[in-house]
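Example noted here:
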Amino acid sequence: MKQPDSVSSNQQSFLRRYRRHRYKIMAARCLLLLVFLLFWEFAAKAGLINDFIFSSPSRMFHNLFFMLKEQSLFYHILITIGETLLSFLIVSVLSLLLAALLWSSETLYETLEPALVMLNSLPKSALAPVLIVWLGNNVKTVIVTGVLLAVFASTITLTAGFYKTDPDKIRLMQTLGARKQDILRKLLIPASVPLILSTMKVNIGLCLVGVIIGEFLTAKAGLGYLIIYSSQVFQMDTVMLSILILCLIAILMYQSIAVLSRKNTK
């Protein structure tokens, strides 16, 4: 009769240890960041590095308050986030549709696989000048650059995942008269949800990188534009601040997908 209480006690003990471990990890990360910022500030104040070239935390925070007062920083942040989310949405839908199409025809997949691998390996920055000529010097080029950086790898990964689905389950559904669209909708996609979420974690970062590349070349707003413009006029405080904000955006986007993934596994 005491066994359930023992199991419950063991579970609670495990949860307490797990929470303590998580708190230790978070504290260690915050401490590491604090030490890095303090060393950076000390190096700049002591003259170990040139704070005009490398900036410093105090100079960045001073610049942050100035840009917030001007209300220009939020505009650039929202532009970059909006372009990244739109690129991410297009990549998620397009790669899933392409993977379903390639799964439905093995001949088509074998024919197009080398092309997908080649396009995935091609440096997307090499395509940017061509995209500017084709699409113009506007936001469409930025979004397409973000899409191109992620869509081919995502399609290859999802297609491979579809083909690895248990063949016995597929044959069982076929013997029961299921069509390919039924197998795809009721078996492949539900079974591949963990893979889809894992791919999304990678895609959100790739889309952000692609958007920044596009903003470097063609944008008139956004953090990528802010970085390239500020570096040209030697406003290195703004450059470093923009890079720091990009790091925070990348972390927040990744953690959002990670939270969605954990909720799906529960």
